[in-house]
Design goal:
Layout (H helix, E strand, L loop, with lengths): L22 E9 L5 E9 L7 E6 L11 H6 L3 E5 L12 H18 L3 E7 L1 H14 L27 E5 L5 H8 L37 H37 L8 H12 L4 E2 L29 H4 L9 E2 L1 H8 L8 H4 L7 E6 L7 H11 L5 E6 L16 H18 L3
Parallel strand pairs: 3-4, 3-5, 5-6, 6-9, 9-10
Antiparallel strand pairs: 1-2, 2-4, 7-8
Helix pairs in contact: 2-3, 4-5, 5-6, 5-8
């Protein structure tokens, strides 16, 4: 059963369709301050091997090393660093406080090679990652977060975080946790029995207003209110499970560190060591259940039916592909819980004063005008702030299936390139 959206049939929609011309590319192996390695591609114009301005593109898990924005940026003389985090294509153990150090490694590399102005281009989940980084980088070291939501040391106060000079957010959501708050299925009331649904909370139950795809559904306001509240309740239950798992590990660590550990029998010592080493993985079933996917009257926009990942979210909701399907407790708390995650742009944007461009794609099937774009722009505190909407563009500005050209990308870059050059001078 093919459930993945056509968007992905011709390859990743965030990759450029035609390689950059008159440019060179250098593969990099960067190293973060906590000694983790990450890979990147450093694209530079042939005429400017050390460009004055450079853009960084990165996502918590997606490979942006060939981002669709790069060809036009390079044509304008702007360098492009497309980097993976330490968790390429796999966010099972993505802790945002840790991958901030990956962003720091990218910015540091550009400063080291002579780039004078660095702009962070946060596309989709890259937006909340970069905003979190910039907010922490702007703080004095002693004011930075010292603990992750799971209680581990971040070491951010010991790290060199160089703030970027400008921020661009394209199709950015408020944060992956905020996305989860809105797409998790509240009809799952027992995490050990994911096929069982509470019918009164099932958005895909016709009794609640669901219509067979691709007909748009309608839900009563009372159902919407109950549904949204129940989604947060499920997130809280998952938070409790994650925190319990963390507490079990901490308890074993404390027993191991106790001076009386050596007095235990060999069997008991081994039991404690095994519990300390044990790293549980949470399976989060049914995370494609946002009412917006199938009801266009909720936050109206010209979007098509379905989600970014699928034209049949009612079925994809049961499949492996989806948000946060597998994650460690620490990753759930840091990245996917909309209650505990600090990679939340509503919290971080008020701390960022650098020039900011926020771009909304009108036909986006994951980012919505009143739910996301409007509150995000209202949260921007930078004196130099710009909002731009492209009403017919999709999430990655990808064209219709089968098209070779991407006119929405060109329109986007017609706005992005001048915005950069006007603020940071000729490339």
């Amino acid at each position: 059963m093919l459930l993945v959206s056509q968007t992905y049939w011709a390859g990743a929609p965030f990759h450029f369709r035609t390689p950059p011309q008159n440019a060179r590319v250098e593969p990099l192996l960067l190293r973060s301050e906590d000694h983790r390695e990450l890979t990147a591609l450093w694209w530079t114009p042939n005429a400017q091997p050390i460009p004055r301005i450079a853009v960084v593109a990165m996502h918590p898990r997606v490979d942006f090393t060939r981002h669709y924005s790069f060809p036009r940026l390079l044509d304008a003389g702007i360098g492009c660093l497309g980097a993976n985090t330490r968790n390429p294509n796999n966010d099972t153990d993505t802790v945002h406080e840790s991958i901030l150090l990956d962003v720091a490694a990218c910015v540091a590399h550009l400063r080291d090679v002579g780039v004078q102005k660095v702009v962070l281009l946060g596309n989709s989940g890259g937006g909340s990652l970069f905003a979190f980084y910039q907010a922490q980088a702007a703080r004095s070291p002693e004011q930075r977060l010292r603990k992750t939501p799971a209680g581990a040391a971040t070491r951010l106060e010991q790290s060199s975080l160089s703030p970027a000079d400008g921020m661009i957010y394209v199709s950015a959501h408020k944060g992956e946790g905020r996305v989860m708050n809105e797409c998790i299925d509240p009809a799952v009331v027992d995490e050990s029995a994911p096929l069982i649904s509470e019918s009164s909370l099932d958005m895909y139950d016709p009794e609640n207003g669901f219509q067979p795809a691709p007909q748009w559904s309608r839900y009563a306001p009372e159902f919407v209110a109950r549904y949204r509240a129940a989604q947060i309740d499920r997130v809280r239950r998952l938070d409790a499970l994650a925190l319990h798992a963390v507490e079990q590990t901490v308890s074993a660590e404390n027993l191991h560190a106790d001076p009386d550990f050596q007095k235990q029998s060999a069997k008991e010592q081994r039991s404690i060591l095994l519990r300390e080493a044990f790293e549980p993985v949470m399976v989060i079933y049914r995370t494609m259940a946002n009412l917006h996917y199938v009801n266009c009257t909720l936050d109206p926009s010209p979007r098509e039916y379905g989600s970014l990942l699928s034209d049949r979210p009612d079925l994809m909701n049961m499949a492996l592909m989806g948000f946060a399907r597998l994650c460690t407790p620490r990753a759930w708390l840091s990245t996917w819980s909309g209650i505990t995650s600090r990679a939340d742009m509503i919290q971080t944007l008020p701390e960022i004063m650098e020039p900011t461009l926020l771009v909304h794609a009108g036909r986006d099937r994951e980012i919505y005008p009143e739910t996301d774009a409007q509150p995000l722009f209202e949260a921007v505190a930078a004196p130099d702030r710009t909002f731009q909407a492209f009403e017919r563009a999709r999430h990655y500005f990808e064209p219709d299936f089968g098209s070779k050209a991407a006119p929405d990308v060109e329109a986007l870059m017609d706005a992005v390139v001048p915005w950069i050059l006007e603020r940071f001078g000729s490339a």
